Prior knowledge:
The chain is mostly helical. Helix content is 40%, strand content 9%.
Amino acid sequence: GPNLNLLGKRQPEIYGRDTLDDVAAQCAALGQELGLDTLLRQSNWEGQIVDWIHEAREHAAGIIINPAALTHTSVAVLDALNTFEGPVIEVHISQVHKREAFRHHSYVSHRADAVMAGFGIHGYSLALRHMAALLG
Ligand code: DQA
């Protein structure tokens, strides 16, 4: 989701110092170990994310998504995820429930099969391991 391209530079006291490239490297290595092909994408544009979810309908077995701010605002991202048949895992780097009240509601959680919050970028690895288990 939006602003995650600035991971490592943006509010490091909340999101840590690891970058999106670090997340990509971590997911690619773990995906290989688990026998999963992973594709990591980031956009600041809601419509682009909706389009990628539609693409995933044809090409992906599961979706791990950090919708960032769109978590709390986007019925469009929720509706797109509702068209996807495989498992969906929602990841937040920070512990959103400890933060401002507006971060406590997630549209995406209405669809997500599992939710991670507060594990830092390690949450993506934990989600990937759970995805491997779900996909058998
Ligand atoms: C976030 C939490 C959101 O509330 C915020 O808007 C983000 C990142 C997280 O990973 O902790 O941009 O999804």
